[in-house]
Automatic annotation (TrEMBL):
<feature type="region of interest" description="Disordered">
    <location>
        <begin position="13"/>
        <end position="34"/>
    </location>
</feature>
<dbReference type="Pfam" id="PF07920">
    <property type="entry name" value="DUF1684"/>
</dbReference>
<protein>
    <submittedName>
        <fullName>DUF1684 domain-containing protein</fullName>
    </submittedName>
</protein>
<dbReference type="InterPro" id="IPR012467">
    <property type="entry name" value="DUF1684"/>
</dbReference>
Length: 179
């Protein structure tokens, strides 16, 4: 692990804590912001920065994701990321909605920490690729950037739930945690 990477991660977390504590659009209810003293995180761990092989889906399948308020929202399964974590092979589907930036991918997931150490309905990651991804490309997935959706902090938000295809059969002790 480079010290610079861990320092950038800590700075990112401090900025997010400040946003949650002070910004009018914070998901923390206004009457709870004064007592808010920051989110809980796993320690930065380079073992959760993994290289993933890309498989593009040129004719992406639409996926209806359930949401926390009972509605569904449509995403397109545009890429699949294959990677190893703890010596085991895993895959995560990357999604985007019609009209979204073609270089941005939404990776909702659950793992064995869900409901134990992390938000019970799952966490999110986003990946931004500066250039279009093609089959066989490799990208870095950094689970240290995994975060709980806004609905974890307030019922006023509706959040997509990770589909079963993105339920990882491993423990991801990285990113935001509940306690």
């Amino acid at each position: 692990m480079t010290d610079a990477w861990a320092e950038r991660l800590r700075e990112n977390r401090a900025e997010k804590d400040e946003f949650f504590a002070e910004h009018p659009q914070s998901p923390i209810p206004p009457d709870e912001r004064e007592a808010f003293d920051g989110l809980a995180y796993f320690d930065p761990d380079p073992a959760y920065r993994v290289e993933a092989m890309v498989t593009r889906h040129d004719d992406p399948d639409p996926v209806e994701m359930d949401t926390t308020d009972g509605r569904t929202v449509r995403y397109l399964h545009v890429v699949t990321f294959a990677f190893e974590l703890d010596g085991e092979s895993h895959e995560l589907a990357g999604y985007r909605q019609a009209g979204d930036d073609p270089g941005t991918f939404f990776l909702p997931f659950r793992d064995k920490t869900s409901g134990q150490q992390t938000y019970h309905r799952g966490r999110y990651m986003e990946l931004e690729a500066e250039e279009g991804l093609t089959d066989g490309d490799t990208v870095t997935l950094d689970f240290n950037l995994a975060y709980a959706p806004f609905c974890a902090y307030s019922d006023t938000f509706s959040c997509p739930l990770p589909p079963e295809t993105n339920w990882l059969e491993t423990t991801v002790e990285a990113g935001e945690r509940t306690a």
